[in-house]
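Input.
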Amino acid sequence: MKGINILFIVLRLILGGMMVYGGVQKFQKPIPSPIEVVEKAEKFKVPEKESTLQKILYISGAKQTGYFWQLLGICELFFGLLVLLQGSSFVGAIFLLPITLHIFLFHLFLESDEMGELLQTGGLFAINIALVLKERAKWKHLLWIKPI
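Output.
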């Protein structure tokens, strides 16, 4: 039992640490102007570079909204910190589920040739699921509420 607890502490540290790191990284570089995005995208308009163009346009589009990229960074940072803190790790893991799912699906559909990235993001999503399932006693009663 003690070994399992240590394992889940390590998993919390991995997930929380990666999310905090990812959240901080969202604020490290300035957001490119729309003109810079178009100039960068122009370089990849050939059919053999179409997957790279999709990634550039997707991430640049999220950055160009003026709020989404920053909101994602704040959520990754805040929820990652919640996962790292013992008392709030379950809440942090619940809130991180859609974010880790989205990150995994991005890599699955837009970077499927990058096996290392796919394994890393799939691992983070699996850790997130494991952390939520570990606490299933706290939420399983919500799945089926008996009618009155």
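Helices lie at 2-25, 34-42, 50-64, 68-84, 89-110, 115-134, 136-139.
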